[in-house]
Amino acid sequence: MPVVQVKNLSKIFGKNSKKATRLLDEGLSKDEILKKTGNTVGVNRASFDVEEGEIFVIMGLSGSGKSTLVRLVNRLIEPTEGSVLIDGKDLAAMDSKSLREVRREKLSMVFQRFGLFPHRTVLENAEFGLEIQGMDKEERKKKAQKSLELVGLGDYVNQYPGQLSGGMQQRVGLARALANDPEVLLMDEAFSALDPLIRKEMQDELLELQESMKKTILFITHDLDEALRIGDRIALMKDGRIVQIGTPEEILVNPANDYVEKFVQDVDRSKVLTAENIMKRPETVDIEKHGPRTALERMRKEGLSSIYVTDAKRRLYGYVTADDVSDATKEEVKDLKSILRTEVPKVDKTTSMHEIFNIIHDTPVPIAVMEDEKLVGIIVRGAVIAALAGNEVNINGIDS
Amino acid sequence: MELIPKLPVAEWISDATDWLTDTFEFLFDFVKNDFGDFIEFFAESLLMQIPIWLFIAVVAVLAFFVSKKRIGLPVFVIFGLWFIQNQELWEELMNTFTLVIFASLISVIIGVPFGIWMAKNKFVETILTPVLDFMQTMPAFVYLIPAVAFFSIGMVPGVFASVIFATPPTVRFTNLGIRQVSHELIEASDAFGTTGAQKLFKVQLPMAKKTIMAGINQTVMLALSMVVIASMIGAKGLGQTVITGLQRADVGTGFVAGLGIVILAIIIDRFTQNLNTQRGDQS
Ligand SMILES: Nc1ncnc2c1ncn2[C@@H]1O[C@H](COP(=O)(O)OP(=O)(O)OP(=O)(O)O)[C@@H](O)[C@H]1O
Ligand SMILES: [Mg+2]
After folding, report:
1. ipTM of the complex
2. Which of B178, B185, B192, B282 to mutate to test the interface with A (most CBs of A within 10 A)?
3. Total domains in the fold of chain B
C-alpha cells in the first residue's frame, strides 16, 4: 500500500468556496475563477500516491500550489475537497488528538526558511519533536545528538541557529525532522534558500542519507535540475493542477504537454539523457551472409562512409569503410573479414550523454551502442547536438 | 439641542459604583484589611528592618551583575540611595518602592494572561483594544475616585488605581509579542504535533519574551508615575512628601522628594532593561 495517498485533493482559498468549486467543475481556469469569485485556487484535484522508500518530487513555478499541497498532506491547511491517506488512514476524519499523533510519529517537515527556533540551541532544536512527544530528557538528547551527527553537525550542539550559516541551519532543520524517525519526510523547497554549491552538497547528502534510511520523501522544488537529480518520480504542477507524473526520464523525453515541454526546455539535458535516448537504428551487414559488394551497395544507398559488421545475432565484429570495401570489390575479395576494422568506439546503452559528448569528438565512425555484447544502436554526432538542443530524442531507443 | 435633556451619565456611573461597593463590600473589606496589612508588613516589618548600608550594598552588587559587570549602574545605585537616606527620606523610599512593586506585580499577573488571551482570540482582541486605549487615556486622577469608594484611603486604593493605569502596556505587548512570532515557526510547531499549551510555553512565550519584558518595563514606569497621584489618597511614600511640599509652597522639600522618585525610576528602569535578554539573540 502506498504510504501517502492523495485523492482528488482541492484547496480553494477565500469565502464561498462552493461557488468556486462549481466553476472549477465547469472547467474555468484559476484566473477566471479569481476574477469571478475572488477565490484563489490553491490546489485543484490533485491525485497521486507516494510509495514507501520513494523520493517523490512536486515541481512547479511560483504560485502553482506546491506549498499548499504539501501543507494539505499534514493538514496544516484544511482541504476544501478530497482526502489524504497516511498509511491508509484518512487525515480529514481524524480528531485533533489523532492528528497530533500522526504528526508526531509519521510525518516530519523541513521548511524553506528553516523554521528553526532562535531561542533554542541546535541540540534543543533537534530535540523539539521528541520533547513534544514527552520523551525523557536523556533519551531525547541522545537521539537528537545522533541525528545531528548524521548531518555532520555533531560539534555544533550548543550553538544557536543565528550563529550558523544557511547550509548548516538547514542541516539542523533536517536533523530535527529525522530525530523523530518519521515514516514520511515533507520537504518544502528545503534547499531553495541555499546558494547553488551548498545546495548541490545538500542534495548529494540527502541522496546519501536516503541510501541507508529509505524514508518516504515528498520533496517540493521549483527547480527542474534539482527535481531530476533527486526524484524517483516527479509530479509537475501548474495553476494548482498536476499536469504530469513520471520518472525524470519520462518527463524529459516525453513531456505531456506544452507547459511541461517549456519547463523541460532549459534543463541541462546532458545529465539525464542516456545513449539509449539518442541512438538510432544501425545499418549493418552480416559477416556470414554478406560480402563487400552488398556492403558497398548499402552504404551507397544510405550515404554512409562506413558500416558496422555483425552476425545474425547482432554480435558486433567491427566496421568496414567505404574506401576499403570499394578496393576489395575491385580485387574480387569475397569476404569482409580481411578488411574488418575492430577498433570500435563502444558505449553501453545506459551511458549518460555527458560521457558520450566527450567520446564523440575524436571518433571517425558513429559510436556503437551495446547491450549484452549486442549492437542495439548507433550515435552520430548530429544526434548529440540535436539532443542537447532539445530536439529529436526518442524514448524507445530506436526511431523508425 | 433642547429636545434631549442632559443625560444622567454621571449618575449612572455613581449608581453603578455604589452598587459595586455595596454588593462586593465583603470582598473590598477583605482586600482593604488583609491585603493592606500585608503591604504594611512588607514595607515596615521587612524592608525597613534591613540595615540601610546592607540594603544599598545588596542592590549595588545586584546592579553589578545585572548590568553585565559594568561599573556605572552600581556607582549610581550607591550614590543615589545614599543621597536619599542622607535626606532622611529612607522610609518614604521604602513605602514608594513597596507601592510600585505591588502595583507592578499585580499588573503583570493580570496583564500577561489577558495578553495571551487577546493573542489567541481575535474577538477578545477586538473588545480589549478600545478598553485598553480608554484605560490609558483616561486621566489617572479619575481612578482615584472609585479607588476611594471601594477601599477608602491608604496604600490599597493607591495600588488599585496604579494597577488600572499601569496594566495596559503589559497586555498590549504580550499580545504583540505572541502575534509577532513568525507564521513559519507556528507552522513548524504545529507540524511537530504540539498541543496549544506546548506551543504557547515552548514557542510563543519564549519568543515573545523580549517584547513582553518591554511591556513590563513600561508598566513599572507607569506605576512609578502614579506615586504622587496615589499619595493624594493617602498612599505613603515620596509622593506624600511632594504633596506636602506643594501644600506648604516648599519648593526645596518637593524637589528633593521628586529627585528621590527619579533616582528610584532610573534604578528600576535599568534593572528591568538589563534583565531583558533573549537566548540566542545575536545583538
Ligand atoms: N493563505 C492563503 N490565502 C489565500 N491565498 C493563498 C494562501 N496561500 C496560498 N495562496 C494562493 O494559492 C496559490 C498557491 O500558493 P502556494 O504558496 O502553494 O504556491 P507555491 O507553488 O508554493 O509557490 P512558491 O514557489 O512561490 O512557494 C497562490 O496563488 C497563492 O496566492
Ligand atoms: Mg511555496
Report:
1. 0.81
2. B192
3. 1
